[in-house]
Amino acid sequence: MRYVYGITSALLAGGTALALVTQSPVGAQVAQNEKSEIAKVVPRSGAPESFADLVEQLQPAVVNISTKQEVTLGVRLNPFAGTREPITQEQQGGGSGFLISADGYIVTNNHVITGGPRGEQVNEVTVTLTNRKEYRAKIVGRDATSDLALLKIDATGLPFVKFGDSNKARVGDWVVAIGNPLGLGSTVTAGIISAVQRNLGSGPYDRYIQTDTAINRGNSGGPLFDLQGNVVGITNMLISPVGANIGVNFAIPADAAIPVIEALKSGERPQRGYLGVGIVPMTDDYAAAVGLPKDRGEIVQRLEDGGPAAKAGLKRGDIVTKVGGKDVTPQQSLSYLIANEKPGTRVPLEIIRDGKTTTLTVTVGTRPPEEELNGSSFDPEAEQTLPDEPSEGADQAIQEQLGMAVQPLTADIARDIGIDRNSKGLVIAAVASRSDAGAKGLRRGDVILSINRSPVTTAEALAKGVADAKKAGRSAVLLEILRRGQQPAFVAIRVDGK
């Protein structure tokens, strides 16, 4: 379960540009939450005298998730062999999830299946149904930005539930949460929706359903149902000064989750719209300066050269008040509205320039990975994980053969990691803890100067060095590594990625 102690912290969630619909699988089996079945147990007038019949229909589709992760805590020197050996420890975790198909697809939170110091994907996932049957689960895909993940177990004829329309959720509606808090097993709690489209100010995508339903550690990834048995949210986090439930809990809305899950199911990365602007909200002072009401629109502070906004004619100082007819407000920020537009879509922007209202049409771009948007700043101590689906070509070969991700070494990055700004090479962005490179102590921020004594400055050159070594029948490559405060050193790394 994600916690926010006292005040909210920066958490990412949000929409994507895909508009997809969850459909029932072919066959006679129906979802546990088919309306014809739910209508028998919930009177239309409102909350039932008991939730028991409703829960009996839904509970079999909610699963317990347990994980194991081998984490490298450090490296020690073997004085007898003269080699470095990793210090590892097995960590266990878990949470909740729910079946969305009879053939074993399961939705949960990304942080449920994430562990280790760099947020690595866990090594082993076990799913337990309410009938106590256990299955080893495959991680189909995960999206850290929205904190969602999709699992798959090898089974058929399973009970499952369907997503509902979270846009119809209203403050005051009854909701039921089912999950596995505090290691107690399947547990049911009920409450009401306290707020919708709750913006916690932690990112452009975080718009949560807030509830007072009792949620604790282990509930993460479990479903939030309405009284028609539809999944309207995925339990994600709580705010608490004590680390336990105080009735301020949050769920990812179903409408934000559906396109992410469908993208992961099809083997794609969720795509989000992008403008290429830097913006500031309309505070009291800005509103007074431009003569507009507070909290209406956002001011363009910066434009990316050649970006979608610049191509559409947007200028610094423009005030964007509407996106596709929707008002830009603190609850519906410009970033949030654009992120939920499909890349390539033409969208009208209503802007105010020099006191006059006009409309520009922008072709929405594709939002780059978050690490690219963070600029040239490179923190060698930052947590970093290898991408689940590396780009094809050199990046993929390097990850598979060397167990690492690299990026070009720029003068700014050289400054950030504390080496000569004129250094040439590739900086290591992430290393798999279970790889040979990780076992031999390579880490984020190290610089690869050469492979088999040939200088490298591109991923393609590094990948070619690996390919040449394998073609020559060698099972390892010699990397020349530069680390801050040390002289360059040669390290032999196996080329199987393990």
From TrEMBL:
What Enzyme Commission number(s) apply to this enzyme? 3.4.21.107
Single GO biological process annotation from the record: proteolysis
Q: Pfam families, per this entry?
A: PDZ_2, Trypsin_2
What start and end residues bound the annotated signal peptide? Answer: 1-19
Enzyme class at the top of the EC tree? hydrolase
Alphabetical list of InterPro entries matching this protein = PDZ, PDZ_sf, Pept_S1C_Do, Peptidase_S1_PA, Peptidase_S1C
GO MF annotations in UniProt:
serine-type endopeptidase activity
Report the residue ranges that make up the PDZ domain in this protein.
Answer: 260-355, 383-485
Which residues are listed for substrate binding in this entry? H111, D147, G218, N219, S220
| Major place of residence | periplasm
Q: Where in the cell is it found?
A: Periplasm
Keyword annotations for this protein, in alphabetical order, are: Hydrolase, Periplasm, Protease, Repeat, Serine protease, Signal, Stress response
- Catalysed reaction equations from the record: Acts on substrates that are at least partially unfolded. The cleavage site P1 residue is normally between a pair of hydrophobic residues, such as Val-|-Val
- Residues of the active site: H111, D147, S220
Family in the record: Belongs to the peptidase S1C family.
Q: What is this protein called?
A: Probable periplasmic serine endoprotease DegP-like
Species the sequence originates in: Sphingopyxis panaciterrulae
